[in-house]
Automatic annotation (TrEMBL):
The keyword Cell inner membrane does not apply. Gene3D superfamilies: Lipid/polyisoprenoid-binding, YceI-like (2.40.128.110). InterPro entries: Lipid/polyisoprenoid-bd_YceI (IPR007372), TTHA0802/YceI-like_sf (IPR036761). Residues 30-193 form the Lipid/polyisoprenoid-binding YceI-like domain. This is YceI-like domain protein.
Length: 200
């Protein structure tokens, strides 16, 4: 009987110690959906908004809440090959700035408490390193636990990035000229949707 009590106490202690780190492990996402809207004004002053995307990206979130995302800017897709190339060459200048990197520190306790099917909203401070510029911004995120080892992360509202802040005005001006436009709106709404899988 005494042996059984001691065994139970040891198991309980082990579970208690593990309980604080039940969700330890690296969460990763590959090629999530990243879209952005670009609005252009033609010579007749009509506004046209189009959606484009980046198809190659990878993200990770560790047990301490360190988040990183790497976006391959050469994976931009507008459904027009020539425009894709102009964006790479003139706006993103992928020969010099191949990737955009996003990083932040996430409060993991709220995520770890989620049961399957539950969701939370977070106002998450993030930093983007793009085109040689570092820009702080906040993302309004929804996080849902699909199952024990899978969560869906998405933007509840688009993040607004500014062409001027990213140092891309010259490239965009060149796009305006060759496309015969009046202007391209400098504010760019960006949305994210991805499924993270935990690697134990």
């Amino acid at each position: 009987m005494k042996k059984n009590i001691i065994s139970f106490m040891l198991i309980t202690a082990a579970m208690s110690a593990y309980g604080g780190n039940m969700d330890a492990g690296l969460w990763t996402a590959q090629d999530s959906t990243i879209t952005f809207l670009s609005s252009k004004i033609n010579k007749q002053l009509n506004s046209i908004t189009e959606q484009s995307s980046f198809t190659a990206n990878k993200s990770q979130l560790d047990a301490e809440g360190n988040f990183t995302m790497n976006i391959d800017l050469s994976s931009v897709k507008t459904n027009i090959d020539l425009r894709d190339q102009r964006l790479k060459d003139w706006v993103f200048e992928t020969g010099q700035f191949a990737n955009a990197e996003i990083s932040g520190k996430v409060e993991m306790s709220a995520i770890n408490k989620l049961q399957e099917g539950e969701a939370i909203s977070l106002q998450q401070p993030l930093l983007i390193n793009i085109h040689g510029k570092k820009i702080n911004f906040n993302a309004n995120l929804s996080i849902q636990r699909n199952m024990n080892n899978k969560i869906t992360v998405s933007t509840r509202t688009p993040v607004i990035l500014d062409i001027k802040q990213m140092g891309m005005t010259e490239g965009v001006a060149r796009m305006v000229e060759v496309m015969g436009l009046s202007s391209i709106v400098e504010q760019v709404p960006v949305s994210f949707d991805g499924i993270f899988t935990r690697n134990s």
